[in-house]
Amino acid sequence: MNPFSSSTRLRDMIRSIRACKTAAEERGVVRKECADIRASINENDPHDRHRNLAKLMFIHMLGYPTHFGQMECLKLIASPGFPEKRIGYLGLMLLLDERQEVLMLVTNSLKQDLNHTNQYVVGLALCALGNICSAEMARDLAPEVERLIQFRDPNIRKKAALCSTRIVRKVPDLAENFINAASSLLKEKHHGVLITGVQLCYELCTINDEALEFFRKKCTEGLIKTLRDITNSAYQPEYDVAGITDPFLHIRLLKLLRVLGHGDADASDLMTDILAQVATKTESNKNAGNAVLYECVETIMAIEDTSSLRVLAINILGRFLSNRDNNIRYVALNMLMKAIAFDDQAVQRHRVTILECVKDPDASIRKRALELVSLLVNENNVKQLTKELIDYLEISDEDFKEDLSAKICSIVEKFSPEKIWYIDQMLKVLSEAGKFVKDDVWHALIVVITNASELHGYTVRALYKAFLTYSEQETLVRVAIWCIGEYGDLLVNNVGMLGIEDPITVTECDAVDVIVDAITRHNSDMTTKAMALVALLKLSSRFPSISERIKDVILKQKGSLLLEMQQRAIEFNSIVERHKNIRWSSLVERMPVLDEATFNVRRAGSLPASVSTMAKPSVSIPNGVSAAPLVDLLDLGSDDILAAPSSSSGADFLQDLLGVDLGSSSAQSGATPAPKASTDLLLDILSIGTPSPAQNSTSAIDLLSTADMNNNSSTALDTLSSSAQPHIATTASAGGMFDLLDGLSPSPSKEATNGPAYPPIVAYESSSLKIEFTFSKPSGNPQTTNVEATFINISPNTFTDFVFQAAVPKFLQLHLDPASSNTLPANGGKVTQNLRVTNSQHGKKSLVMRMRIGYKMNGKDVLEEGQINNFPRGL
Amino acid sequence: MDRLMSLCVPSLNLRMHRSLIDSLEIQSCYLLSEHSCLASGFGSIHFVLLVSRQGKVRLTKWYSPYTQKERSKVIRELSGVILNRGPKLCNFVEWRGYKVVYKRYASLYFCMCIDAEDNELEVLEIIHHYVEILDRYFGSVCELDLIFNFHKAYYILDELLIAGEIQESSKKTVARIISAQDEMVEAAKEEAGSISYIIAQAS
């Protein structure tokens, strides 16, 4: 603008930036321009402001920081000329957002401009306010905007209406002030004003019940008439889009009718005719028409029951679904999900088409279709649908397999008619997409397998066969080695053959080969290797003839780089060595049947947090509580007792001493679920030592006839920790056993003592919300604590947009995982979220946390804050 | 309409793709969980984005609050997703619980982000409406027009959308309001020009 100015023009700057050949060169140009702009800002020459800001906006779009130009926007807005104001407001909207405090400084200028004599200046101010105003500004300027809704020029009226929608979104309390003004807009003829007026009414209805009632009573008929007029209107070139007069207005009107009709039979009745007319008369060969039909179907599905209309809606969706246009099919899939709620049968008719969509090359369509299919599944069609999906799993894209396999698993789990079918389908999924399957899914599979005793032989043989072909699928390998470890003898002896099976011959060597394959493969992860090691130990007792070979394999793991593996290898090796002498039957016998109900409860609780399954068999197992101190205590006496096993009756001696039969008591306590909920079930599965100490403690108490004793090992454990006498008794028994493991170091046992010692706490409780924390420590890292926070809605209202935020002092580090959901259903709805806290002053200071919770209840924002001081000591 | 679809590819703009946005460091935020940062939005359109096929941002407009950091992250993520989609797929992408409706016109992708339950087909119409108005204003608009006159593209968008809602369904009305404002700017320029001419004469 200024002929004397030395700086480059905007156009020249854009050219020179575009001429850059490398990113570095571009940075150079931008740096130079920014320096010029800063210098020019410091000179404070009003003539250059306009150009500087334009340049800054371009630089901003390229992604460079431009905060130093923010004040220039304010100066331009405050200047009298229209060009300056225009660019100033543009810069304000582009460079600032509503959270910046600079924005507060502009409130006064905005107020002046809203009262400006030039309507275009008023328009600029309304536009800026509508796009970026904060709650404070909304409060300050609401009266001006409300007045402008009645302005003489339609251009201002429509802008004021949309500006009001933003204001009432920011400050719902202000909604009442706008009701009258909004209803006056509904009588307008100008399309722009009408569209924005309808939008404002819609907004008011969604946030304010009074407004909803008001519009329902006063405006429903008027709106229906407007919609009828526009639908029947003759060709209007100004508003015509592909044969439809103003589809935007159509859509807004239908949307508003939707909220008016929802939950009100009278209003719904009134609009039946016009909805039927729109649904039947609208041209559906162009996108604009389909957009209107979409909205019409939404409205029909939302208003009170008028079944003939719903048939119409379903038919439209059916037509959409068979459309060749991908967009329309996507939309149809999306809407059919809602339609299931009131007409399942009608949607089922399209099952074949929907299944085809699962195989679509378009990822968006596949995802929608898969969601829809999972809603369509019921007891009758589960077999057929699962077959289709699994067949497709074989050929689907790699990146879709994760979603697809997760869906299949959840369908199979939910609707499986019989166990053998469930096992078959799961094996198919594991074979095809085992590396994508989540931990809890294969854990569940193992639980089901242990419960299906008549299928053990069948399952282990099927797994063996699958392993030979699909050994690269990690989770399949895990399940296979677990089952071979448990049921290896059934595999070799072809026990429990079903009629449908082909007989196979598997030697003991073959079975061990599989495990060796898994343990030696370099890409097997720690969990798999640890499971393989346990399986080997178990097989050593099942296959006495090749126990030497097994011992060699175990010994090799002594050289493992993983401490855990090393330690286990040494322990297991000494166990195997003593095999011949001692009847270790109870240690390596089959796992007791796992309790499905307990597992499901636990799984539901920890679902979003994939529990770390690093195998730490005896370290963090709940039952280890009793065992751990025992080892320490026994250290002194170890030499004496060590002598015992060397005599052939060593174990007998122990059992005799206690006067119990280990075998039978294992059945008792085996049926009891693991006592503490803090550990994963898998750890129980892996923990070979588990049953023994638990039983012994029970039996020890039996022996001493302490009060309130029963077969429930968890109560027994509680008694154990509190009373000293049984303690000693168990010491003798469990200690004897543990000593046989020779090298059991005291350090992990220390942790085992700590492990479950942290009781869950109620971290926060208000009238509507309760927060519970449960703790666990990843072994090997005492500074870190995993906290699982459970948020429980104890109010009768649903919370939405739930956000939990936490802050900790400097000596702590906090990491938050995403919450399982941001919606808490009313009356006991739960959301869980995992936190990881690292305490750099572990042992000196205990945890402390401040937290803030925000959510919406009945459309209102609620904020709760608090400090959590009641963490257990020593975390 | 064909003329529009063939928004011409500027021959100057043949540089290879390199995203400047990538060079911005995005630090992960430990104190607040990540998804809490995203706007707990309302309104039909959360933001509008114009990205060239090379991943260059040509226009951004945010109707829900996003910090600068989030903005560059969103742009980077989305342009990655959208530019990589094949030609015959549907125009919708599901992203972080929202939906992004996009449409390609020649070398430019027009993207608008809406809530999961909003009308995607209507947003496609809004995009097309905007492109038609741009086309009418610039006369066969091409990417270069939008680069050198990016502020005009913003002015037009502001006459079409406020607070993420559509404000005018008539292309003619938008054109009329824009040209009235352009005339005011021209008039002010002439006036300033004549004043500076007088000053120049006097000195």
From TrEMBL, chain A:
Localisation: Cytoplasmic vesicle membrane; Golgi apparatus
Keyword Transport annotated: yes
Ranges in a coiled coil: none
Main location: membrane
Keyword Protein transport in record: yes
Family stated for the protein in its record: Belongs to the adaptor complexes large subunit family.
Protein name: AP-1 complex subunit gamma
Protein source organism: Brassica napus (Rape)
